[in-house]
Design brief:
Layout lengths: L1 H12 L12 H4 L7 E6 L4 E5 L5 E2 L4 H13 L20 H5 L10 H12 L4 H16 L5 E2 L1 H10 L1 H12 L7 H12 L1 E3 L1 H7 L15 H14 L5 H7 L4 E3 L4 E6 L3 E6 L10 H14 L6
Antiparallel strand pairs: 1-2, 1-8, 3-5, 4-5, 6-7, 7-8
Length: 301
Amino acid sequence: MKDLLDDIYANIGLSPERGGVATYIPELAKIDPHQFGMCVAAADGEVYTAGDAEVPFSIQSVSKVFALALALGKVGDQLWRRVGREPSGLSFNSLLLLEREDGIPRNPFINAGALIATDIYLAGSRPKEALGQLLRFVRAASDDEDIHINEMVARSEIATGHRNVALAHYLASFGNLHSGVDEVYGTYCHQCAIEMSCRQLALAGRFLIDTDDTPKLVSRERRRRIAALMMTCGHYDGSGDFAFRVGLPGKSGVGGGILAIAPGKASVAVWSPGLNRYGNSKLGTEAMEMFARKTGWSVFG
C-alpha cells in the first residue's frame, strides 16, 4: 500500500496541471496549490501516507459527513422531512431548486441541505456548544484531540458567503429553518473551517468502514445511508463522474480534500487544493481513480 501511494504521488501528485484554488473564500485563495497529500487508514489499524499527509487543511464540505451523522443522531429519520435524498444535478450553492421544491433541499450535501443539518444539531444549543458537540464527534472518530476550527477561515467565509446567506434566508422563508439565520450561518461557516490533515481525516472516516475494529459512533443502518448519499451526492454535479471513475462513496470540499470509503477495507483521504470545474479537487479525483484501479476496490465489484 505504501508503494502504491508513493507511485500515485509521483505520477499524479506532482502534476503541473493542478486546477485552481477556491478564490471566492479569501483565506483559501492564499493556499499553495502545489501541495498534495494522501492517507489510507485500513480496517486492520494500519495507516499509510504519502506527500503532505500531515499538513492541516480546511475540510470545508467534507465536514457535512460528520454534521449529517450528528443531525441523524439528534432527530433520526425525521431529518428526511426537511431534506431530500436525491442528487441535485446543479452546483453546490444553487438557489434554483429551492424555489421550485418549496424550500426542501435535494440532499444534505449541497449547501442548502447542509444548512438544514446544521440547524438540526444546533437546535436547543448555543453555537459554541453545538460546534463543541461536532468537534467531539470528529475527535472521537479520529481518536485525536488535536483537531480545531480555523477562526480566520471561518471569519473569511462569514464575510464573503453572500449566496449561502441567501440560501439560509430562502430556507427560513419556507419555514424550514428553525434557528436564526445568523446563528445557523455562523455555525455552518465554523463547521466548514475545521482543519484536519489527511491522516486525521482518513482516521476519522473509519466510523463508516463498518468492521468490528472501527469506531461505532452511528448504527450500521445509518452508516450505510450516509455512504449511499456520499456515492450519489458527495461530489455535487460531479457525483456521477466520480462514481463512474472511482466507484467508492466519497465527499469532497472546496478546500481540496476528498474523503472516500472502501466498505470493510479502508478510509482514504486525499488533499490537493486545486479544483476542477465542479469544485472538487482535480488531482485528488485523479488520485482516487488511480487508487481504485490499482487496488480493484469498488462497491460495484
